[in-house]
Amino acid sequence: MLFAVAMTFIDQTIVAVAAPEIDRELGLSASGMQWVVNAYLLALAAFFAIGGRLADLLGARRVLVVGTLLFVVSSVLCGCVPTGGVAQSWLIAFRVTQGVGAALLFPAALAVVVAVFPVDRRGRALALFFGLSGALTVLGPVLGGWLTSWTWRAIFWVNVPVAVVALVLTFLARLEDRPRAESLDVRGALLIVAGMGLSVLGFQQAATWGWGSAATWGCIAGGAALLVLFWRYERGVRHPLIRLRVFRDPAFRADALVLFFAMLAFVPLFFFASVYAQVCLSASPTQAALFLLYFFAGFALASQWGGHILDKRGARPALRLGTALGAVGFALWANRLTDLSMHDQWPYAAMAGAGIGLLLAPASTDAVNRAIGASYGEVTGVTQTVRNYAASVGLAVFGALLTRVTAENVAGTLRSRGVPAGRADGVARQVAEAVTGNGDERVPQGSGQAASAARDAMAAVRMDFAQANQWVFYGMAICLGLAHLCALRHPGDRVTAPAAQSARPKAPVS
Predict the structure, then answer these.
(1) Alpha carbon distance 232, 246 (integer Å)
(2) Which strand (E) or helix (H) includes residue 56?
(3) 459 burial via Cβ count (<10 Å: 0-12, 13-18, 19+)
(4) Where are the transmembrane segments (predicted)?
């Protein structure tokens, strides 16, 4: 199961490091490059609940195999994208199908792991599972930097051998499907997919359409309305996509909210930190990946500590400590971004990583353990929907914020060098889209006053971009602070073995 989910987590972040090379060869727009990253996360968020439900209805093994095949075929097609006008649509489309494949296979894989381990051993097992899967998220940029030095297409092709191993091990594990004689809630599935898609589209396009645009707020409000309608509709369905009564448990609500606010920062961090390193620190893709290793070091060490705390004392201490440490780490890291020194930032990057590592496995495991009459595949669908929806929203909102602040900063720099205000604003928007869509080392071309001023001001532009990134990282610190407030509301009770076993489905392993 770890081999199966390895691909899904690596692909959440691996594209960030390769973004400049992808854009250089394919000529994608700035918003197009962000959608190459965001389309995968959005598809994950939109289809996770469906994947969890299908694993219950059709059997975990069958859904796992279908999801793995869909994922790996989509990966191959992403790596084979042709150059030319079709490139952007091609890449985004198959990133979406990649996300759908991941949304099918992950809940099925986790349902198998949960069914195998009794509750008194499940804490350590799931802490290891979530800890390793989270570490694989961090591994994405490192692997991406190394593969990009050969060809950026390899970041997609690397999934092929991993998928082969996963399918072989799945066959050797002799998994047995135990399907349910229930129906799929198709209307609920359509509502949640449309609601998440519309809301994230509004956040994502805010930088292009503007926050005062009717289209921006129409998408956000329309998506929110559909999600509310989904919530109300599910309460009256005999076999709902999600059994909402699990939210009656205050500990589950606290776990879900902690995951939501933490994931607003966790996955988007890799995209923004990678672009920052390549633009402001003049780092290569490989060096940008090494920059992120500081975060990974803190994450890897703290994730196992978080699992130990969960087994001994429950989830609440780990959630409180992790969210507080993460908030402080991101704030201190943001404060040092304008130093433009990779080595001066490592203690704060490691602190931020340790905070996320402490909370991720305990929150995820505690939420899964609290399945009340619902299957673990279904509850996994809930928690992972929350995580991936938050990652999509975080990438969209912070991306829009970064583009706007960068444009304002660069416009101010150009005006101070004698460029007329109107011309400075136009060039600033072009520069902002170039460097916020991807890490771009190219300088402005042309012989006019604005282009000449922009070339002469490249050092100042890098500082402008670093200052804009401070807003993003301070925003991430605020997200962890909100997660801490939610962690304070966790009741601190622990799931007992009899309670969990009573809700436990039959093991799908012969």
Answers:
(1) 15
(2) helix 30-58
(3) exposed
(4) 34-51, 63-87, 99-119, 126-148, 154-172, 184-203, 209-231, 252-276, 288-306, 318-334, 346-368, 471-488
Contact 379, 259 (CB under 8 A): no
What does the pLDDT read at residue 264?
A: 93
Report the DSSP beta bridge partners of residue 271: none
Q: How far apart are CA 62 and CA 80, in angstroms?
A: 27
Distance CA 74, CA 361 (A): 29
Residue 11 Cα distances to 155, 267, 492, angstroms:
8, 11, 34
Q: What's the rounded Cα separation, in Å, for the pair 39 and 201?
A: 10
Structural fold of domain 2-184+241-405+464-489 = Growth Hormone; Chain: A; (1.20.1250)
Q: Could you tell me the CA-to-CA distances from 317 to 255, 314, 362, 394 in Å, in that order?
A: 12, 7, 10, 26
How far is the CA of 48 from the CAs of 156, 184, 231, 242, 433, in angstroms? 21, 14, 16, 11, 31
Q: Length of the chain, please?
A: 510
Q: What is the pLDDT of residue 413?
A: 82
Give the integer Cα–Cα distance in Å for 315 and 256: 12
Position 2 scores a pLDDT of 81
Q: What's the Cα-to-Cα distance from 218 to each of 202, 224, 389, rounded to whole Å?
A: 7, 10, 19
Domain ranges for the chain, please list them. Answer: 2-184+241-405+464-489, 185-240
Partner residues linked to 509 by β-bridges: 175
For the four alpha carbons of 4, 7, 12 and 13, in that order, the dihedral sign comes to positive
**What is the greatest pairwise CA distance in the chain?**
75
**What is the predicted pLDDT for the residue at 122?**
66
Phi first, then psi: what are they for 108, rounded to 5°? -65, -40
Taking a C-beta distance cutoff of 8 angstroms, is the pair 280, 469 a contact? yes
Flag residues of the chain having pLDDT under 70.
Answer: 12, 16, 30-31, 119-124, 127, 130-131, 133-135, 137-138, 141, 177, 207, 285-286, 371-381, 433-458, 495-510
Taking the CA atoms of the chain, what radius of gyration do you get in angstroms? 22
Sign of CA dihedral 370, 374, 375, 379: negative
Per-residue tokens: 423: 């011309």
**C-alpha dihedral sign at 393, 396, 401, 406:** positive
Asked if 431 and 410 count as a contact pair (C-beta separation under 8 A), the reply is yes
Quick one: pLDDT at residue 59? 82
CB 195 within 8 A of CB 203: no
Backbone angles phi, psi at 209, to 5 degrees: -80, -30
* Token reading at 136: 């694989």
Q: What is the DSSP string of 384-430?
A: HHHHHHHHHHHHHHHHHHHHHHHHHHHHHHHHHTT--HHHHHHHHHH
Beta strands in 223-285 (DSSP E): none
